[in-house]
Amino acid sequence: MASEESKPILYSYFRSTASWRVRIALEWKGIDYEYRNIDLVSGAQQSEEYLKLNPYGKVPLFITKDGKAIAQSEAIIEYLEEIKPERPMLPKGACHRAQVRSIAQVIACDIHPLQNLSVLKHVAGPDMEKRSEWGNYWTSKGFEGLESMLEQTAGTYCLGDNITMADMFLVPMIFNAQRWKVDMKPFPLITRISNTLMTLPEFKLTHPHRQVDCPDELKETGL
Amino acid sequence: MASEESKPILYSYFRSTASWRVRIALEWKGIDYEYRNIDLVSGAQQSEEYLKLNPYGKVPLFITKDGKAIAQSEAIIEYLEEIKPERPMLPKGACHRAQVRSIAQVIACDIHPLQNLSVLKHVAGPDMEKRSEWGNYWTSKGFEGLESMLEQTAGTYCLGDNITMADMFLVPMIFNAQRWKVDMKPFPLITRISNTLMTLPEFKLTHPHRQVDCPDELKETGL
Question: Is there a contact between A72 and B102 if contact means CB atoms under 8 Å apart?
């Protein structure tokens, strides 16, 4: 049990885009952590044991070195930024910080929530084609607005030429878009920025298809 | 045009819960602002003029005194906290701050997005009963988890005995829950905290039914 005392823990699911955001941030900050798999498909997030840690029953969940539990990806990432300011994920200046949070929240509060597994199940049951159609519709719609936002803010990355929290929210969203077969042609900025980011080790190493809980058949086709 | 130069501007819609969050924060901080109505029902958020200001086409949008535009309620509120730290909306201590952000984000990223007007229209068209059923389902489901979270954090308010950003996200959510006729009996903590908050001027004055763009017939029954 020594590792539990010395390392923080991330409860994650390989395909959860919100978990991926946190994996990127941890890698970015160079924080070593223990990965614990919560299999969303089998319903592990609703087990009695897990609900004691995270009463809201979702991933990701971060357990600090002192054993404090933090839910919600952006709350975790802001926490990491506060305890370890080196390699900042937010720029200096209140206005720039607000712009970065805006982009992250467009993804976290507008685009992503509609493609949570619980929503897909409710809307389409086991019908994978219907799930994909729903996911495609909302992602495409969200990307239209996001592309326009980025036209006002982007340089090499979402805000200018430094990597920020916004980029850590963008890349996992593209992974979902690929699952829903979203036509990316109308979104050249989103595409260019995420392609650039995906050449960086922090984004590559944390890819869903490189996680221990990723099924082997996906691992082969992943990257 | 003098007011534009001296006061920040909030683009808001009376019934938008995300706009209400920001109205509470502005009132809490004692920041005077100009209220500009964006009528979501008539589609004003998609007008060419508004899209220039906010390419994502949603409310709220905050224009700083220097004319910088910030979208997304939580980004605006974090900005207000950074530029005016008096009457803090986040506690001291990284862990407590994370807990407050967690609660706010459960509301902003999990519960609220499913009841955005665009989603309601897509799912139920003009069928108000079907809209209400959908809103009721997702709010009730979300409140189950939120109530359990609050069991671990609440005092008088969402986190202990000081008002935080989490409380500013909670109250507007209850307003929506009432619209969907959510049975609040299973949620005694949510109910007790929001009732306490609604006795305070910052929450009362910013209520949807007290905004200039609220139709008169609602104003009469509102509070």
Answer: yes
